[in-house]
Amino acid sequence: MASRTPRGTAYESFGSGERTIALVHGLGLNRHSWQWQVPALAAKHRVITYDLHGHGDSSVPPRTPSLSLFAEQLAELLDHLGIARASVFGFSLGGMIARRFAMDHGGRLDALGILHSAHARDTAAHEAIQARVVQAAREGPAATVEAALQRWFTDGFRASHPQMMDEVRRWILANRKDIYAPIYQVLVNGVTELVAPKPPITAPTLVMTGEEDHGNSPAMSRAIAAEIAGSELVILPGLRHMALAEAPELFNAKLLHFLQRVQGG
């Protein structure tokens, strides 16, 4: 059962420890998309999951959606919980929000995870994702959900895990058309403000994606890592976008190894 902040952010807290890890989900998803990571991370750390504005059980965005708005939401959540500093791991859109948080609230960050997240797109990729936004605005999330599942999971896994496909499909279909499309637009436009981040991101950083995650490609992750001094780059072989659900043991092992390295440092 989620708690709520005075400003309407639904959140849950798991585990305990000196380090707090805040997990930021992707577009159209919700805090439950971290269900495969929470047990592993909460064994030694305090873990916070929450719903972005306009998702799950949280309130609608209080103004036009932007990366800065979502970074502000995270800062307000940490304030509400009395947490001065946290490690922030963001998936997809969440990885963009995590970078914006690092730029806007860097003093509150002790480690950063940028997971399956976009960097600058070429013209073809930009036009393809913009077309999906237009389609979603016209027809709602149902118009793009099946294509998303194909991009997000490998073919064999998708065929052998119909219950998981149904769960993720329900998450996406639960989004309101009038809110989903403007937030989707943030996924399109937000990358430009993250290229060559200013101020520079200085927190220990893990950059990770799947070998077959074409929308958040290895080339994009290499470009992100190249702009963050000392960052660690991981490419997960044979996996697409939702590696956190398709291969949680491998995914979690990479997160835990990074955290152990940071802790040791």
Automatic annotation (TrEMBL):
What domain of life does the UniProt record list for this protein's source?
Answer: Bacteria
Annotated AB hydrolase-1 domain ranges read 23-253
A Pfam match is Abhydrolase_6
Q: Which InterPro entries match?
A: AB_hydrolase, AB_hydrolase_1, AB_hydrolase_fold
Gene3D superfamilies the record matches: alpha/beta hydrolase
State the protein's name.
3-oxoadipate enol-lactonase
